[in-house]
Amino acid sequence: MDLALTEEQTAVRGLARDFVAREVTPHAADWDRAESVDRGIVARLGALGFLGLTVPEEYGGSGGDHLSYVLVTEELGRGDSSVRGILSVSLGLVAKSIAAWGSEEQKREWLPRLCSGEALGCFGLTEPGTGSDAAGLTTRAVPDGDDYLITGSKMFITNGTWADVVLLFARTGEAPGHRGISAFLVPADAPGLERRPVHGKLGLRGQATAELVLDAVRVPATAMVAPAGKGFSVAMSALAKGRMSVAAGCVGIAQACLDAAVAYAGEREQFGKTIAHHQLVQELISDIAVDVAAARLLTWQVADLIDRGEPFATESSVAKLFAGEAAVRCANNALQVFGGYGYIDEYPVGKLLRDARVMTLYEGTSQIHKLLIGRALTGVSAF
Fold it and tell me: Active site includes 7?
């Protein structure tokens, strides 16, 4: 693996860094308090080509490699994880799944709109009663002539109230577990689909999170993505890459913690000198720096494996597990550097801690990833 960025990758990271400094960071605290990001950010992400990274240009994408995607995701996470989530889900989980599994018609219909920011996607997998146990989902799609009628509910759906299309997973057969699950592209304005916003979250407060309730939502059979019964494969392949995206966002959070702690330590005076002179403060900052470096390298490794066409699922779990836990440690250490001032939202580290905490929960809890890594190393199958 060559750790030197190409000129194109350096330019992409610089573009993302400038965008975040101009369009995200100045507003992050206000969006957090209002529990709503400015919807106009979607079009601006699309205009720069960020929502089309790695998607073929023939379908309206920007092309590029997965390391460039990671670099952009890291910068967005550094600015505001709520904005990072918009891209991670609409591009990382939905558009990339359509590009990999969709029919030619589905690609032509949805990818140009998703890549431009004209449309936004959400990923309808998690249910109120099935989080980690995705194979146990109960939403059903029943054949009705040339259509399917979908009934059930989904919970904690990022982009849920903003999305134009839902990549939705439902049970289409009597086969147990993952074998009976299929994937569908469901227009978010379809009759019978209700979207209920989720408020009062600990972190990612600016993100549009929703519960989706489906009551006999009718979709044509052509809305199915991949063959019937292959929906679980669609979901797992999406999440394998999605975990890289979450890890990159965690690197961004951790980097923001490092930046904030170093800056504050150089300004805050105690005992007649800045606290940067105190060895225990230096220890806190050095611990953050080590976590940032390790999480970044683990995440870049996943992108490198994907770009080289090598297996990456276990490495993606390793990166997501480490980076998620590291982001929490970094935020805790940064808050300690800030002392009491870190506990009020005038300063950034309280929000960084709240945003970091969910990273150990979604797209696989830390405990689930330990199981996945352990199974991969021992050869023990989950089924």
Answer: no
